[in-house]
Specification:
- The chain is α/β, with parallel strands linked by helices.
- It contains eight helices and seven strands.
- The two termini are about 25 Å apart.
Length: about 230
């Protein structure tokens, strides 16, 4: 069951300081994976022990979920993983822009809260500013992976990514949804959707060498986009 919070409420608009990788990990030079909207953290709790040559950070807007994820991580003794509480569209911009070059190798956004109505457009997790910050932090060839069980949720994300002109879509066919999850570990929502026979829409992108557009230009295109 999804438990929505309104990311535009006053409490979630307060900027939060996010520790740098140097403050979180002993071996902070390893490739970094950022999972935006980590929920209860089951995906990263399974993935991190399998990828010990990576560091993993999960950020989540629901504070109780972050606390429970961190407790489980500590109990399991997983040193290359941290869960952090923040509103991605408020606190991640400065953090991403201050990362050392070549540090961030992968960003995943999986099954975000379904703010699919046009009037809720500004509540969606992937906003122009966040996308450009991700593009700035990823060097060419690094990954951005998105997936959802709702076409009305992932289609606007796809359109925004394509508008930026900063990413190349890859897969079995350039415009086809991926059949399998390239992360090898399924999220809780992914398992639930699969068990109920729901389709899952996946897309993997690589950062290209194109320059990053201005935020005002991308926001203008996004505002007039005929997205759901």
């Amino acid at each position: 069951m999804r438990q929505h919070v309104n990311p535009l409420s006053r409490f979630f608009q307060l900027p939060r300081s996010i520790p740098r990788p140097e403050e979180l990990f002993e071996d902070y030079d390893m490739p970094l994976h950022l999972d935006i909207g980590s929920a209860r953290g089951k995906f990263l709790l399974e993935l991190a022990p399998l990828q010990l040559d990576w560091n993993h950070i999960g950020v989540e807007i629901r504070h109780p979920l972050v606390l429970s994820s961190e407790r489980e991580r500590e109990q399991l003794g997983i040193a290359n993983l941290r869960f952090l509480f923040c509103n991605a569209n408020v606190s991640l911009d400065a953090w991403l822009n201050n990362l050392s070059k070549q540090q961030l190798h992968r960003v995943t956004i999986q099954f975000p809260d379904p703010w699919f109505k046009r009037k809720h457009k500004k509540r969606r997790v992937l906003q122009p500013k966040l996308l450009l910050s991700i593009a700035n932090a990823l060097s060419p060839g690094k990954e951005l992976f998105i997936q959802s069980d709702l076409l009305s949720v992932i289609d606007p994300m796809l359109k925004l990514i394509e508008m930026s002109n900063c990413f190349e879509r890859i897969g079995e066919e350039s415009q086809a949804w991926l059949t399998n999850n390239p992360m090898s570990i399924a999220t809780e929502r992914e398992i639930y959707a699969s068990q109920n026979g729901s389709p899952i829409y996946r897309a993997l992108f690589l950062r290209n060498k194109n320059s990053i557009p201005t935020l005002s230009l991308l926001e203008e295109e996004w505002d007039v986009c005929d997205c759901n």
